[in-house]
Amino acid sequence: MSAIHTMPIAEPLLEVRGLSAGYGKRAVVHDVDLTVRAGEIRVLLGHNGAGKTTLVRSVFGLIRPSSGSVRYRGEEITKRRCADNVKAGIALVPQGHGIFRSLTVRENLELGAYTADDPAATKTNRDAVMDLFPILRERAGQIAGTMSGGQQQMLAMGMALMHRPDVMILDEPSIGLAPNLVQRVMEAIAEVNRALRMAVLMVEQNVVHALPIAQSVTVLRTGRKIYEGAPEPLGDRQYLMTLF
Ligand SMILES: Nc1ncnc2c1ncn2[C@@H]1O[C@H](COP(=O)(O)OP(=O)(O)OP(=O)(O)O)[C@@H](O)[C@H]1O
After folding, report:
1. What is the CA radius of gyration of the chain?
2. Domain of 178: which CATH number?
3. What domain range includes position 65?
4. Which UniProt keywords apply (predicted)?
5. Which of 13, 140, 166, 237 has the smallest CB count inside 10 Å?
């Protein structure tokens, strides 16, 4: 008798269902479903203004959705405060890094653990983050704003990792970076995902650099989901053009 081998499907960590959100009376995201499974990298693609940032900020609790729900590990978290989401294991690295430019790298990492009240754990986590990003150890005493854009992005991720999240939401980590730095940042994201088995939801416009590290992809156009699936079909430029 032959056995049927199937890949185990990882449990869903974040489940977004029918989410709509906007600003005042203006609806920007319409009825979007999206799932992030444990350990995967899901890339959220779409043009400028497609609603990607609005969607991830709504998931994280920075914007109150007008309808729909967000569940984390099966628990309803729609409209929960973002500080509680951070404590529960969700991290957001905002567009433009969100670092404190006039503080040192070390101080930034310590501020990344601001909701933790265990100095010993903070030190252990800081050491672990510096093992993952050796440049942050080398530059520990440097003023963060004087580092390169790529290094600042690593620091922003390092700050998010201080809480040992299970899922990290990255909003356009490639923005403003030279192509060689984009490549390095993508490799760092893939490495963090592998080493920590941490799920990633990454907003990107840079299809060329984002697709190689994606395990699943969602594409938004004018606030609606128009593609959901594997990254491979999007490698076909002509097909991609029909979506964008
Ligand atoms: N704070 C705000 N107030 C009002 N409208 C906003 C606000 N932020 C974004 N918008 C509008 O919502 C729409 C979606 O913006 P959003 O930033 O979510 O898109 P995006 O896909 O992330 O784009 P980008 O790649 O440029 O960041 C845009 O038309 C934008 O002008």
Report:
1. 18
2. 3.40.50.300
3. 12-243
4. Amino-acid transport, ATP-binding, Nucleotide-binding, Transport
5. 237
